[in-house]
Amino acid sequence: MAQAKKVIITGIPGSGSTDFCNRYAAWPELKVRTYNMGDMLLKMAQGDPNKPPITVENLLNLHPGFLDTLRDRAFDLALSMIAAEESACDRILIDMHGQFFWNDVLTNTYDWSYLTGIDADMFVTIIDKPSTIKSRQMATAHGRLQNHDFRDLLMWQNAEVNIASGWAASFGKPIYVLPAKQDPATIESLLKNAFLIYFQMPMTDANSEANAMITAFKEKLLAIGQEINGLPTPLIDPRTIDIETGEGLSKREKRMIRIQTVHRDLNWYIGEATDQVAYYPPGSTLSKGVSDESTRGFETGKNIFVVYPSSHISPFMDIATKVFSSETEFFEFFPKYLRKRIKSLQRVTTT
């Protein structure tokens, strides 16, 4: 067996990164080994039989020098286990945080020497909306102790993406920001091939009927990849993280949620995609969000395909690689295109 592909998966506490790793590890055709660095750090802190155990809610109150020592011991152990197991596994997942946010202070969780030792093939940061993150955090003793507000969580999550992006840039490896509910098959596809679709649709005014048509179109897209490549067509659907509509939000929180949503879609999702597919259900009007996303894709070198069932085409759609007047026309074109595109974006090495 060839050496395992190694993926560092980050996410702030409550983001769903561990649940994502667990779903990935359950892949029936692969032997996947997961190292949860937070759990390993806690076990190190509780491992001295001559001292009272340190509870998880007190762990980050320890002296920074002692925490660094515990981190080093945890990573030393993980690296030795990875070296012993990587030839017997298909995938190795390192589940870790880039930073802790404790008592209003951001602290790095990593040491460059250990990241170098892992020699990851890919970096992934898992994200979610603040209310879901807060709900997960408040289910834990240390989360209740800190009680972060939505702005804290959004800034922390933004910093987490920036940290992982810096790692990837330093090591010359790809970085992907994915929603917590993303199918792990997306990573399997991306390990072999850089092809990734950002799926666009008019969202603000879409009713339940329009959403059903959008979902049906997406399912057809996924099925074509499964037929051609043995994996669902890799795509990111911004609806996977639904719009935050919680009661009692301040004006400042609402503004930040809106700004972060736009930042996520334009800079993270579109930034990592190779292609964009915009689908307008019949009867839809032109969407400013879809138009802005298409413009961003055009300006960053993406192939953009628009399905717009209307005879009145805006001249601004001329930036698209191709505009289709019907779903039928698009799905007659897409399989052949996908085969060619996948071949052109193949990674240099695969397992």
Structural commentary:
The protein has 351 residues and is an alpha/beta fold. It has two domains: 1-182, Rossmann fold (3-Layer(aba) Sandwich); 193-351, Rossmann fold. Helix content is 47%, strand content 16%. The chain contains twelve helices and twelve strands. The protein has helices at residues 17-25, 37-45, 64-85, 112-118, 130-138, 141-146, 150-171, 185-192, 208-229, 251-272, 288-299, 327-344; strands spanning 5-10, 32-36, 91-96, 99-102, 105-108, 122-127, 175-179, 197-200, 235-236, 275-279, 303-307, 322-324. Strands 2-3-1-6-7 form a five-stranded parallel sheet, sandwiched between helices. The protein has a five-stranded parallel sheet with strand order 9-8-10-11-12, sandwiched between helices. Strand 10 (275-279), helix 11 (288-299) and strand 11 (303-307) form a beta-alpha-beta unit. The longest helix has 22 residues, at 64-85. The termini are close together.
Keywords:
351 residues; alpha/beta; Rossmann fold; 2 domains; five-stranded parallel β-sheet; 12 helices; 47% helix; 16% strand
Please report the distance between the alpha carbons of the first and last residues.
9 Å
Regarding quaternary structure, what we see is single chain
Q: What is the name of the CATH architecture of the largest domain?
A: 3-Layer(aba) Sandwich
Query: CATH H level of the largest domain: which superfamily?
Result: P-loop containing nucleotide triphosphate hydrolases
Task: Please summarize the sheet with the most strands.
Answer: 5 strands, parallel
Q: Care to count the β-strands? A: 12
Q: Provide the succession of SSEs.
A: EHEHHEEEHEHHHEHEHEHEHEEH
User: What is the approximate shape?
Assistant: globular
| Name of the CATH first level of the largest domain | Alpha Beta
The count of domains is: 2
> Roughly what is the average pLDDT, rounded to an integer?
93
Structural class, by secondary structure, is: alpha/beta
- The CATH topology of the largest domain comes to Rossmann fold
Helix content: 40-55%
Strand order of the largest sheet: 2-3-1-6-7
Strand content: 15-25%
